[in-house]
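[audit] Reproducing an earlier prediction to check determinism. Same input, same settings, fresh worker. If the tokens differ from the archived copy the diff job will pick it up downstream; this log only records the rerun itself.
[audit] input (290 residues):
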Amino acid sequence: MRAHRPSVAFPVHLEELYGRFPFERSFADDPISSVRPLARDRRRAEVAGIFAATLAVGGTAAIRTAIGRLAAMVDGDVSRLVDPSWASERARRLRPFRHRWIRGEQLDHLAANLADYYEGSESLEAEFLQGFELGGFDHGLDALARVLRGGSRTAPRGYAALFPTPLGSLKSPAKRLTLFVRWMVRERYPDLGVWRRVPTGELRVPLDQHVHWIAYHLGLTTRRSRSWNTVEEVTEALRRIDPIDPVRYDFVLCHTGISGDCPKERDLTVCGPCSMRPDCLLWRDRRAAT
């Protein structure tokens, strides 16, 4: 069977989906809605963003709850997490924290690594750019992962696995770090736009299960598994539509899956009004009225 590809009218269909999308409804369900109130300056935006992206495991409601619990533990001031003078109190407060397999001691270790980094650097953007200029976006993510993993300090069990890199043997899609960079770089809603030196056209799609499923069924990738190669393939397909800001479609594709607007099976009551139906593999070779 030949590979599924989008229709010639795919860019028009995607723009229609984007234009009609209920951003406010989905913004309330997204982790970024919990990050924005904490991001009062660039440092706080980076700290809130890193912790929120690290916690972005599982359903959106559980993620937002976890971010809220973490914020409450530091009395709403995420800058405390990277304040060296607050290290003992931070460790005490974070100790009981749990979210899926992520433990408070791991978050305390992350905070200590960030505190070390900020002792000598103003922003994580500089670290990302150093890797990016060396070898591209994947090298930028790798540079961030190395900072977050830290140096000589002994890490808690399972900590390094929180920060996979596209340059590793498994070629991880690095969804959470890619999401963090999207939040930092894009100025347009709903992102934060506190980094100014990374071009939006160089961003990559944070490939979660919803985006991958929809991308595969729209013919944006032929790959059935999530890997960095899949990230590159999906991003390149979107870059051909918008080379300046290819990942602006990410939020819409992701929440089309999360919200149930894409039921992931043929259901005319839901799929009927969808502008993407002519491009969808599930509806291929089927008349619009079936």
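[audit] rerun output stored. Observation attached for the diff report: The chain has two domains: 1-23+203-290, 31-198.
[audit] end
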